[in-house]
Amino acid sequence: MILALDVGNTQIYGGLVKNGKVIFQFRRASKSGASSDEIGIFLRLVMRENGFEPEKIKKIAICSVVPQDNHSLASACMKYFNKAPFFLDATVKTGLNNKYDNPAEVGADRIANAIAALKLYPKKNLVVIDLGTATTFCAITKEREYMGGVILAGLRLSNDALGSKAAKLSNVEIRKCDNVLGTNTINSMQSGLYYGHLGACKEIIAGLSAECFGGQKPFVIGTGGFSSMFEGTGIFDVIVPDLVIQGLLEGLELNNI
Known about the structure:
Layout: E1 2-7, E2 11-18, E3 21-29, H1 36-49, E4 59-64, H2 70-81, E5 86-87, E6 97-98, H3 108-120, E7 126-131, E8 134-140, E9 145-153, H4 155-165, H5 185-212, E10 219-223, E11 238-239, H6 243-254
């Protein structure tokens, strides 16, 4: 089995992969500064509690946007699995022609999404929208050029900002709204979060189409924890919840690990 970990600012999203298929997924709140013991014990425990033997892990692949935790992650893998993990980032083989001004700045999760998207949908101009702590957009041409993208505050960050910075507002449940018009403070905020994000997605897709793909509509892939909220809105051609895990698997292949 392969253990794949997507380490974000809010959550650690993990998956177990056997014969190329994701057979188990889990999430854990991120805790910056967690020790290698905390991480390793959690990983072994969540596997055992769900009927999987940690000793059967043959490879570990990680993409992390929390660099200060990478040492603890690597130490946990060595101590509790006796495996040196593969860290996917811009410095390893990705199969991408990275057009970023500084290619090393592209986040590991965005690289994972990009290489998985090209594996699943080759010969297409692509936009990948990852709705997590931040909402990120990646534009990739059918010639495998990583053109760049857009980053904006995600739904949870926006909700937290309203709740903490506006004296008369508090955090609300983030959910899909049927009506734009809010008739009380709570559903006014919910509508603003949902339709504000939906409108931003539509505008950014249109802008990327014009600037990167000569006005032709790209194939749009949705992923990340909030992507399912926007299913049926027409902004996505497909939603692939485990896109980052598939990217980690492709990273292992590209680097012969």
